[in-house]
Amino acid sequence: MNPTVVSRRDFIRLGTAGTAAAAVAPAILGTDARAAAKKQAGPVSESGGCCLTKSGDFYNVERGNPPPYQLPLEKRIEIGMERETWQLEVIADAASNSKIERPLLKAGGNALTFDALLKLAATKATSYLKVITCNNLSDPLGHGLWEGVPLRDVLWITGPVENLRHVYYYGHHNEDPEQMFKCYLPINRIFEDPPGELPVMLCYKLNGEFLTGERGGPVRMIVPEAYGFKSVKWLQRIVFTNAHQSDDTYAKGNNDTNSWLKTFARFAELPEKLKAGESLTLHGNAQVGVSGLAQVQYWLRNVDEPLPSNDPYFTRVPWQDAQIVPFDAEAIKGFVHATLHPAQFDLATKRPREWPLRHTLCRWAAEPRRLAVGNYELRCRTIDKAGYPQPMPRPFPKSGRNQIQTVKLEVVA
């Protein structure tokens, strides 16, 4: 997902620095960023620190040959990939001694249908902002307001009894066991949200509209604090198990399947070449992981200057503070009927309890700069609420890529 260009309103709302930036906004959009803005359809909200992504503008990471939403309509109807035929089974693992009293089975005629899920949603629906990121890619795939029913409210229908340690779940896989994509969650995480945390949900809407097949519809899992692989698309079966060890499909690719979202910054589209004296404003998006976000910083280096020795994460260089774009209520104005989750929003004011929110995407911008002729490297990073600068405290790629981004810029006469 390429972060969108920062709007004029963003700069104005940044205060003193934003006022200066607003004056040069036309110069910013006169660079390659203008072409980038025209090239993309843009997010649902073009302004403010919320940066919602249209459903069709998410970058796809998907499995299946073919992906089930690309099958002919008749086949999608047959296999439950359309809302009118979708069904969810919830069972106990035959290979363990888990016990539930009322399994939901297609064969028994009591699998959960889409209409039944919406009836449950009449009293249980919730919505929250979440960024989707692949832990093997360096940029977020998209950011949206997801709506659904907490998974626990469906699982309680089955009468869970004993020997329950995990659930595993998977979506449609073309009747080919080799294409199955399976994920595990601890039972504790499903039934009890830690204070201030969001529920795992069975999701059926994105940005107020029913999920498309491309986005994982009719129903997908959403795990708020996790990378995208846990939020399985095209959900069709959930299984209670007493297995003590998870067996996620992603683990077979040497990934950390228990990783939480990391906090990191990325640049928006920036020009590769600029004329001396022309204004340049650095801006971009920041992913807010479980550790929160306190600050975004940038470092502009002339390549003729030596890099510090024995400092792989650039902790001794002259980082400068950027500003986080404040939340703009206009970004969710179109979702007045959504039941926003109280862990994220004050329900009376419809404003976030803090900004930026964990598990989401926000915008940042820095004061405009004018540079002399030369070749430069630009870097950005975050500092989380524990005081750790990116990529700390977890600079390990198998649990999510949060390396410091480097962008090159040539300034010519």
What distinguishing features does this structure have?
2 domains, disordered N terminus, single chain, Sulfite Oxidase, Chain A, domain 2, Immunoglobulin-like, 8 helices
Description of the structure:
13% of the residues lie in helices and 27% in strands. The protein starts with 7 loop residues before the first helix and ends with a strand. It has helices at 8-12, 16-23, 25-29, 32-39, 73-78, 114-124, 151-155, 187-191, and strands spanning 87-92, 99-100, 112-113, 126-132, 142-150, 160-162, 166-171, 182-186, 201-206, 209-210, 220-222, 235-241, 264-267, 273-275, 283-288, 295-302, 320-321, 323-324, 345-346, 351-352, 360-365, 374-383, 405-412. It is of the alpha+beta class. The chain has two domains: 8-57 and 262-412, Immunoglobulin-like (Sandwich), CATH 2.60.40.650; 68-253, Alpha-Beta Complex (Sulfite Oxidase, Chain A, domain 2). Strand 19 and strand 20 (351-352) form a beta hairpin. A five-stranded mixed β-sheet has the order 3-1-12-7-8. Strands 4, 5, 9, 10 and 11 form a five-stranded antiparallel β-sheet that branches. The chain has eight helices and 23 strands. It is elongated, with a radius of gyration of 23 Å. Mean pLDDT is 88; it is low at 1-47. The longest helix has 11 residues, at 114-124.
List the helices and strands and how they pair.
Elements: H1 8-12, H2 16-23, H3 25-29, H4 32-39, H5 73-78, E1 87-92, E2 99-100, E3 112-113, H6 114-124, E4 126-132, E5 142-150, H7 151-155, E6 160-162, E7 166-171, E8 182-186, H8 187-191, E9 201-206, E10 209-210, E11 220-222, E12 235-241, E13 264-267, E14 273-275, E15 283-288, E16 295-302, E17 320-321, E18 323-324, E19 345-346, E20 351-352, E21 360-365, E22 374-383, E23 405-412
Parallel strand pairs: 1-12, 14-23
Antiparallel strand pairs: 1-3, 2-6, 4-5, 5-9, 7-8, 7-12, 9-10, 9-11, 13-15, 15-21, 16-17, 16-22, 18-21, 19-20, 22-23
